Amino acid sequence: MDKIIVGLKRVVDYNVRVQVRSDGSGVETDGVKMSINPFDEIALEEALRIREAGNANEVIAVSIGSADAQQQLRTGLAMGADRAILVAVDQDLDPLSVARVFQAIAAKENAGLVMLGKQAIDGDNSQVAQMLAALWDRPQATFASGVSIEGDTARVVREVDAGLETIEVDLPAVISVDLRLNEPRYVKLPDIMKAKKKPLDEIALSDLGVEAAPKVRELSYAPPAARQRGIMVDDVAGLVAALKDKGLV
Amino acid sequence: MARILIVAEHDGSDLNPSTAKCVSCAAAIDGAEIDVVVLAANVADIAAKAAEIAGIARVLTVERAENENAVAAILAPQVAALAGDYAYVFGPSTTFGRDLMPRVAALLGVNQVSDIMSVEGSHTFKRPIYAGNAIVTVEAPPDTVLIATVRVASWPTAAAGGSAPVEAASADTELPVHTRYIGLESAASDRPDLQTAATVVAGGRAFGSEENFQLLYALADTLGAGVGASRAAVDAGYCANDMQVGQTGKIIAPDLYIAIGISGAIQHLTGIKDAGTIVAINKDEEAPIFEVADIGLAGDLNSAVPELTNALSK
Ligand SMILES: Cc1cc2nc3c(=O)[nH]c(=O)nc-3n(C[C@H](O)[C@H](O)[C@H](O)COP(=O)(O)OP(=O)(O)OC[C@H]3O[C@@H](n4cnc5c(N)ncnc54)[C@H](O)[C@@H]3O)c2cc1C
Ligand SMILES: Nc1ncnc2c1ncn2[C@@H]1O[C@H](COP(=O)(O)O)[C@@H](O)[C@H]1O
């Protein structure tokens, strides 16, 4: 295949303990560390390995978001992506509109594979890959923990509730990746320098002719019901007594 | 009246309990009239089970050889073809529903509401975001079909004892051949299913090896419990991937959850927020798991777990 497109969403870093703003208007993102969605980093790593194995020529990193997402794209370029595209939007797009953007880019680039995360850890929607596959009328292989390219097909192991499922899909296809697929490489300083020279194109939503979809509106935010710290027992006998007390054993 | 279609989850012969949980969610919508659709190669047994769920109007069946395995690209056009008669189409938040429902939504040109925790109005719902660190109230557009997944851990199993009529439905759409099911590798176990067990014991990295996980299995068998694990334990190869509990594993709500040698990372806690009682055994008194545990024991699992198994088997 020629090209692999990888989605890199800029999200609050997974180590940050996210807080809801006291007025319920959203979660606090000011001054909070932002990173590539961890699943997307794995998607990029896999795309790079496919290219390095000689099964693809070019890896293109795509982010849809504010100009700040350039940082995540530069990191993606430093990891090894060949070029990057920032689709500039000033507000958070809904998953269907994001899928439409990827469809437009996949068509324009004549992509052989689109690799995304199984979910973005901010909205936890887990929708874009499946939606893109539907719009593009191509196969989807979600929650991938193993990918092998065999000519015009890909064999994908999927992490499902019942265990590990294997499917075979014709290319082009959409793959959404799970955490156990690989360990993303570390970026080294010379790579960061090199990445500065790689192309990063910025385009507008209107350049792609994408129409925004009907939105699910977010009305208000609240912290989850907090669990209280309970009692500490001294030993196993104390634990058994406490469980019996609650009628649990 | 609000016509709601629920896509039944099954493994080809048995109905998955997630279906009855979706029914509970659907029943929370005012004026709900609920149909369940079974898409399978052999529908009879599954449809008969679905018909027993109390509170549903009809069971629809779509019997096609192509429906032998749950392949989203094959099921989605059939569900989309049936959706025209409904105001809502729901599926479970299991890997089955998460794979399928967004594909249905996109075919119908709408967004999906993922992981409904509660129904606040005909088109307003609560759902978790940021690994459950925030709960957002969302409103879906009222003028289009509403596609959603139901967060199964948030809903009780609808009662049995119904006897809904079973009707064959036609979803004569052309199906793609670009996706082929090869097989499933499943760590078969006689223990209760993690997602529906009343008691779950779970182990973390601290077990140190696959062999040492036997301590956990012995405790589980004494309690008749399902067995879960942290991501670290799965990644280290101590147990199968389908045992992972948390943001990227299973979200569960047992009456009793016993976390052993698990530190309590936010991604893990996301999976057990709705548990009735949380017990933690950890040798580090400062471990974050103790902040959410109802009963905590600071101690070494290598002695505490066999001791507990022993005490409980008496
Ligand atoms: C995007 C993302 C998604 C994730 N999803 C999940 C998920 O779904 N589920 C999940 O679990 N994790 C998930 N994680 C990983 C999570 O962040 C933690 O790394 C993981 O939960 C840690 O597992 P652990 O508690 O077993 O290991 P550790 O954090 O290493 O904790 C081990 C604990 O065992 C205790 N201990 C050590 N020896 C003993 C002993 N002898 N007796 C008793 N206690 C002992 C230690 O004090 C420590 O608290 C995710 C991470 C990311 C980035
Ligand atoms: N704004 C975005 N920019 C780039 N990729 C995105 C964006 N939103 C979603 N994606 C991709 O789609 C995956 C699933 O996202 P979601 O369906 O929103 O949970 C993510 O892991 C990304 O790979």
Summarize the model shown.
Chain A is an alpha/beta fold. Helix content of chain A is 27%, strand content 31%.
Note down, in words, how this protein is organized.
The complex is a heterodimer of chains A (249) and B (314). Chain A has 249 residues and is of the alpha/beta class. Chain A has a single domain, classed as HUPs (Rossmann fold, 3-Layer(aba) Sandwich). Helix content of chain A is 27%, strand content 31%. Chain A has helices at residues 38-52, 70-79, 95-109, 128-136, 189-195, 236-245; strands spanning 3-7, 10-12, 34-36, 58-65, 83-88, 113-117, 140-150, 153-160, 163-170, 173-177, 200-204, 217-222, 231-233. In chain A, the strands form two sheets. In chain A, strands 9-8-7-10-6-1-4-5-11 form a nine-stranded mixed beta sheet, with helices on both faces. In chain A, strands 2-3 form a two-stranded antiparallel sheet. In chain A, strand 7 (140-150) and strand 8 form a beta hairpin. In chain A, helix 2 packs across helix 5 and helix 3 packs across helix 4. Chain B is α/β, with parallel strands linked by helices. Chain B folds into two domains: 2-168, HUPs (Rossmann fold, 3-Layer(aba) Sandwich); 199-313, TPP-binding domain (Rossmann fold). Helices cover 24% and strands 27% of the residues of chain B. In chain B, strands 5-9-4-1-2-3-10 form a seven-stranded parallel beta sheet, with helices on both faces. A five-stranded parallel beta sheet of chain B has the order 13-12-14-15-16. A three-stranded antiparallel beta sheet of chain B has the order 6-7-8, with no helix packed on it. At the A-B interface, helix 3, helix 4, strand 7, strand 8 and strand 9 of A face helix 3, helix 4, strand 5, strand 7 and strand 8 of B. Strand 13 of chain A pairs parallel with strand 16 (295-298) of chain B, so a sheet runs across the interface. Bound molecules: flavin-adenine dinucleotide and adenosine monophosphate. Flavin-adenine dinucleotide sits between chains B (204-206, 230-233, 244-249, 261-263, 265, 267-268, 271, 282-284, 287, 300-302) and A (14, 38, 121, 179). Flavin-adenine dinucleotide (FAD) sits between chains B (204-206, 230-233, 244-249, 261-263, 265, 267-268, 271, 282-284, 287, 300-302) and A (14, 38, 121, 179).
